[in-house]
Amino acid sequence: MAELKLPIEESAIRDLKVGDFVELTGRMITGRDTAHTWLIKEQREEVLPYMQGTVIYHCGPVVQHNNDGSWDFVAAGPTTSIREEPYQADVIGRYGLRGVIGKGGMGPKTLAGLKEHGAVYLHAIGGAAQVLARCVKKVDRVFMLDEFGVPEALWVIDVERFPVVVTMDSHDGSLHDEVEAHSLSKLNELIGLAG
Question: Whole-model pTM above 0.70?
Fold first, then answer.
């Protein structure tokens, strides 16, 4: 399993292929439905430096606010990514992202955006929210907390050895498409046997 340092260069991302297991160390940012809509509505210069060369994590974290004003992630599991399909390719291109983390995969618009901009889709382990939260070493800052609330805010975090697998790459590869095609083939085979 390779460890990738974030932010990262496009060339290193283009070396990744579907099926590669990697661990991420460095800066990433969280963002869900409300964040993606906000990011697309107009250029958000204040978040641009925190997004260039890194990844956006589809995550609605559970956080703890400490007495000293700092934040800790208590749970950081991935949320379903397909909801961001209308926006994701544009967010990647506009903000210079090198990847997306979530669960369930994304569609053809995002896959085309990954190829065009040199990015990947990374699948995080569902059901392991507390384990993944241990990889979050620091909250650097948070955008739109008061406006959006904790789950929908954009959390800028430092992670260490955050485990993911590449399931969509910058070469038109999609494990999700492969699984769907294989499943349909098996279904048709079973239907044929039943007929």
Answer: yes
